[in-house]
Write a structure and sequence with these properties.
The complex is a heterodimer. Chain A has helices at 10-23, 69-72, 111-115, and strands spanning 6-8, 26-30, 40-44, 54-60, 63-68, 78-86, 100-108, 121-122. By secondary structure, chain A is α/β, with parallel strands linked by helices. Chain A contains three helices and eight strands. In chain A, the strands form two sheets. In chain A, strands 3-2-5-4-8 form a five-stranded mixed sheet. In chain A, strands 1-6-7 form a three-stranded mixed sheet. In chain A, a hairpin with a 2-residue loop joins strand 4 and strand 5 (63-68). Chain B folds into two domains: 14-256 and 466-484, Aldehyde Dehydrogenase, Chain A, domain 1, CATH 3.40.605.10; 261-448, 3-Layer(aba) Sandwich (Aldehyde Dehydrogenase, Chain A, domain 2). Chain B has 14 helices and 22 strands. Chain B has helices spanning 48-65, 70-86, 88-99, 103-127, 160-173, 188-197, 213-221, 235-248, 274-284, 307-319, 339-354, 389-392, 408-416, 431-440, and strands at residues 14-16, 19-21, 28-32, 39-44, 131-136, 139-147, 150-154, 177-181, 206-208, 229-232, 252-255, 261-264, 299-303, 358-361, 380-383, 399-405, 420-421, 425-427, 447-448, 463-464, 467-468, 481-489. In chain B, helix 6 (188-197) links the parallel strand 8 and strand 9. The termini of chain B are far apart. The chains are: A alpha/beta, B alpha/beta.
């Protein structure tokens, strides 16, 4: 089994379950830029149109996690952990009306992990 | 005058059709102040029905407003500016409470720039002229401008009133009606502004609807009767906004942030004078608005030959930043805008430490003794290299990433090695260098021997992933109107094809 690039905390998984029961299947896209940039956005599956330069990093609690190639350049060596905190983000991410905000925490991969890390997949090559 | 937390109503409503209207679903959310996490007011948690109502009322108003004269619209803008000026202290306190930024900034920058924006576009619309071209002896071509009708605007939380003004002023000036949604972290200041200026506006010309992005922002951005969407925020939502605009075949302008380089060349240290003092402040401006600025100079590039001496002076200035009560004019740094923003910034400080960047100062939360429940962070400086995440991702907090360069070529290479291209700064006493480097930077704004000044009339917008469109300049007028070509032939003879 390769080392996963993305994982999820128990608290975030519980929020994903709540959102999934309300909105159906979900997806995550890591945002960049100002305000709520650099935060994971949770959308109903298919709401956000993925493009040829978006990369699939793996699943978290049954949801695909995607990132633009420009951003991935700097995530290659990091394990990304999706957590949740109280807060009021401004974006179209689904958890915001609950008074919660998904958040990225990071851990640098060890050399051993890097040797066996899951390869990323370009979105347009996914069946 | 002593500044303090202002009084608010317990509950606000949406402003639709010139009236305060309760949300149709009857739901509200609590707005809090990041200064102390305390309650400010209940704010409408609107849904698609409220958006539909606002768009409908805006179109009713557009019948008359779209035919208003430039003189009438110009006068309205001047009256709005005057009214804001009469209430500048109250509005500054409201903005400080809602956003967490210090009164030093709201009174000294945010509100004066709001006023300036309305006066600038009031002047633009009154003085501009269209164009007429003689195509040939019998044919005249006229370019005539017409408003789009009803436009949607979604406002960020970092400069709630100023970013609203940047969008409202050109849209009103061109004769459009507006449905605007403030950010859910900072909704109250625009509502208080409507209490101040509402009576000046024809009913339905400017409508404010509050709520959460997915419940209220999305229905607004994707509404079939909206003719343009303007957005400031992050890239995922920016892409969604453009996706919805594509579905409706309407224009969208997006301002999506940056990771702005601030380049310091060795000639700044040639003298120990006012200019060197200004350059030191220029580096420390990463802490303005607690770093929550799209153009935050969050990457400092310092020429190797002056690094030790210049950085030592900068660190002294950073460590002299005063903390305390945001309502005191002497307080230089205040609260981050929300708990989740605070948590995100702290997670990036952690990433910087894990990546092996050298922590030069700060690196911790700041416990404000007066407001122990607020969201405060120390101004933080890391030294590292440009491939680190703290150099590449917008942290949107008081976190500066510093690196060095050898020469002009390397400075430009590092400056442009980013997915963004919004702001940038360069500091030099060498005129040739200034011109060469400013043209080499891939960004929509290059501040030369200055930073963080935003006069109306200086265009603002991004290259690369920083978005599409220009604000804060007369060219934005064309972002809010159609151009109709009326082509008139005086020749009575047919073309001859049929």
């Amino acid at each position: 089994m390769p080392v996963e690039r993305v994982s999820v905390t128990a608290a975030a998984a519980e929020v994903i379950d709540r959102l999934r029961s309300a909105h159906g299947e979900l997806m995550f896209h890591l945002s960049g830029g100002c305000c709520d940039g650099s935060s994971p956005m949770c959308f109903p599956l298919g709401e956000f149109r993925l493009g040829g330069r978006d990369l699939y990093l793996g699943d978290i609690h049954g949801c695909g996690f995607y990132m633009h190639a420009d951003q991935f350049n700097y995530y290659e060596n990091c394990h990304t952990i999706v957590d949740v905190v109280e807060g009021r983000g401004a974006s179209f991410s689904l958890e915001i009306p609950l008074g919660l905000r998904f958040l990225i925490r990071s851990r640098i991969f060890s050399d051993e992990e890097l040797a066996d890390v899951r390869p990323v997949t370009a979105v347009d090559t996914i069946d | 005058m002593a500044f303090q937390r202002p009084e608010f109503k317990e509950q606000y409503e949406n402003y639709i059709g010139g009236k305060w209207v309760a949300p149709i679903g009857g739901q509200y959310f609590d707005n809090t102040s990041p200064i102390d996490a305390g309650f400010i007011a209940r704010i409408p948690q609107s849904t698609v029905k409220d958006i539909d109502l606002a768009v409908e009322k805006a179109w009713e108003a557009a019948v008359t407003w779209s035919k208003s004269s430039p003189a009438e619209r110009s006068m309205l803008m001047f009256r709005i500016a005057d009214r804001i000026e009469e209430n500048i202290e109250m509005l500054s306190m409201v903005e400080t409470c809602d956003n967490g930024k210090g009164i030093r900034e709201t009174l000294g920058a945010d509100l004066p720039l709001v006023i300036d924006q309305f006066r600038y576009f009031g002047g633009c619309i009154r003085t501009e002229a269209g164009s007429v071209t003689n195509i040939d002896a019998d044919t005249v071509s006229m370019e005539v401008h017409e408003p789009l009708g009803v436009v949607a605007q979604i406002i960020p939380w970092n400069f709630p009133l100023l970013m609203a003004a940047w969008k409202i002023a050109p849209a009103l000036a061109t004769g459009n009606c507006i449905v605007i949604k403030p950010a859910e972290q900072t909704p109250v200041s625009l509502l208080v502004l409507m209490e101040v200026i509402g009576d000046l506006l024809p009913p339905g010309v400017l409508n404010v609807v509050n709520g959460f992005g997915v419940e209220c922002g999305k229905p607004l951005a994707s509404h079939p009767d909206v003719k343009k969407v303007a957005f400031t925020g992050e890239t995922s939502t920016g892409r969604l906004i453009m996706q919805y605009a594509a579905e409706n075949i309407i224009p969208a302008t997006t301002e999506l942030g940056g990771k702005s380089p601030n380049i310091f060349f060795e000639s700044i240290m040639d003298k120990d004078d006012e200019f060197l003092d200004k350059a030191i402040e220029g580096l420390v401006l990463f802490a303005l608005n607690q770093g929550q600025v799209c153009t935050c100079p969050s990457r400092a590039l310092i020429q190797e030959s002056i690094y030790d001496k210049f950085m030592a002076k900068c660190l002294v200035r950073i460590e002299a930043i005063t903390r305390g009560d945001p309502y005191e004019l002497s307080t230089m740094m205040s609260a981050q805008a929300s708990n989740d923003q605070y948590e995100k910034i702290m997670s990036y400080i952690d990433i910087g430490k894990q990546e092996g960047a050298e922590l030069l100062t700060g690196g911790n939360a700041y416990k404000n003794p007066q407001y122990p429940d607020g969201y405060y962070i120390e101004p933080t400086v890391f030294k590292g290299h440009n491939k680190m995440r703290i150099f590449q991702e917008e942290i949107f907090g008081p976190v500066l990433a510093v690196t060095t360069f050898k020469d002009e070529d390397e400075a430009l290479e590092i400056a442009n090695d980013t997915q963004f291209g919004l702001g940038s700064g360069l500091w030099s006493r060498d005129m040739h260098q200034v011109h060469k480097v400013s043209r080499g930077i891939q960004a929509g704004r290059v501040w030369v021997n200055s930073y963080h000044i935003y006069p109306a009339g200086a265009s603002f917008g991004g290259y690369k992933n920083s978005g599409i469109g220009r604000e804060n300049h007369a060219m934005m007028l064309n972002g809010y109107r159609h151009t109709k070509n009326v082509l008139i032939s005086y020749n009575k003879n047919k073309l001859g094809f049929f």
